[in-house]
Amino acid sequence: MLSKNSLPVADLIIQPKNTTDAQTQKIEIDFDNTHEAYKSKDNIELLRSLLVFKLCTFDFLVDKNKELMDLSKKVFGQRLFERLMKMTFYGQFVAGEDHNSIKPLIHKNQAFGVGSVLDYSVEEDLTQEEAEKKEMEQHYVSCCFLTLGVDHREKKYKAHRQFGDRRGGVVSARTYFYADEAKCDNQMETFLNCIKASGGASVDGFSAIKMTALGRPQFLLQFSEVLVKWRRFFNLLAAQQGKSGMDALEQKLELEQLKESLTQLGVGNKDDIENWFTGEKLGPSGTIDLLDWNSLINDRTSISNLLVIPNVETGQLEPLLRKFTVEEEKQMKRMLQRVDVLAKHAVENGVRLMVDAEQTYFQPAISRLTLEMQRIFNREKPIIFNTYQCYLKEAYDNVSVDMELSRREGWYFGAKLVRGAYMYQERSRAEEIGYEDPINPDYEATNRMYHKCLEFVLEEINHNRKANVMVASHNEDTVKFTLEKMNQMGLSPTENKVYFGQLLGMCDQISFPLGQAGFPVYKYVPYGPVNEVIPYLSRRALENRGFMKGSQRERSLLWKELKRRLLNGQILYKPVY
User: Fold this and answer.
1) What is the pLDDT of residues 444-453, one digit of tens each?
2) Closest by alpha carbon to 262, among 251, 252, 247, 272?
3) Reported pTM
4) Which of 56-65, 236-245, 539-548 shows the lowest per-residue confidence on average (mean pLDDT)?
5) What residues contact 249, with CB distance under 8 A and at least 6 apart?
6) C-alpha torsion angle, residues 468, 456, 376, 305 (rounded to 10)
7) Burial of 452 by CB count in 10 Å (0-12 exposed, 13-18 middle, 19+ buried)?
């Protein structure tokens, strides 16, 4: 597994950057070494993996997996069905039913160098009709508060019945539907229990949360539209100064010219506009960049007053909604309070919090709320991590803008880079409703975007140790790319600045060799009662179909290790730790 002379990988990385040794030594982890990859698994576990992965290649079984599980439950009864699931799909992809039952697996993985990101993966088992009804009901309430006359809302940021079931076309992310505030409180309690379980199970764990579980998703739609239109208004002003087509942070608007443009557009009188750009909002050398521009929105402290958009045709700020009722205002504030409670509990329990990415029509608001948490809680160390989906065309701009904000304000930047979970749904929705497809054109473009974002963050880590990144990927080439860059930059795994992440039950040939070589690597660990994680297991089958059909590598490595053990007389092999 290790490179020449059998030196530990960590030792190779921490050589001084400018020495001959550091330039000639290379990190070489052997991802074909099945002994290292599977030493934490007994033979029964290897056979289970082979069975599950093979079943995932049969289209009929995968397409009808939900129906087949329901039928099995009726035929075998609840007790036998649960035992069957624990011997197969549940046992492969889920750690256990509650925070106590998952501890043995977490401790075993930890003994072999692999940490955990805990995720309570219980979902409502709704029909498509029930999901659509819930989504449209919470949208209808907000529609009652639309401005009289012209509706200035964009199609992308409205709920649409044909996409009301947000689970459609999603293969690896759980989905929450709003019912009422009490349910949001219950879901917050679930996240709190997950944070406590993570703190109790390990000393360096993560816990995952989803913003749509903590409040009415319609608020996220509305806030996202405000943020996107505000940024679009900035782009219009940049184009007027001949600065279109640049990277986000390269667009620096001349302040005096900007004031003149805003006055001419009738956005406000000269004195009001002058007051906008005073004190800390004034950019360097008399210019305003996107971060300065975004900070203006902080002035609109009342939530209802925040929901206004600049009309790029008239230059006027138009209300997106009428004033919220007192109850609506309270609901929005409760959502923010729930987020704050979770962040504080993460700090108290020594757990890092990962905010999952969601659909593009929610994501601007989710990212903004996550940034606000980072500004508060990431002052001394990285506690809050935002997730960036690199299949998005704007992924690099999002990473670079957020990174620059952390740099200016002096807090720890925390990012999880993923390729993305909503591609099919996003593409279908954009085409059906009629707006620009936000997804990169093909898989190779997504790979290039992922590596571009990753290299940018690694460069920042190299120059400023306040950045942190989790490389959440099952792509072996991406992992090798990361190791090579770390080697070139002299980044040591012992600094805990670069983490790796894979899903439980997948790609052990990547996770465990990394962990045993001293790299911080984590399994995304779902848990919950058998019946209540069936929606999650259903998606795992769907995702693995494409994964296993595209490559037989993992199955071949599993067979290789089984054969090696049989030839060495290790029929009853048990991991020692």
Assistant:
1) 999 999 999 9
2) 272
3) 0.84
4) 539-548
5) 289, 290, 291, 400, 401, 404
6) -150
7) middle
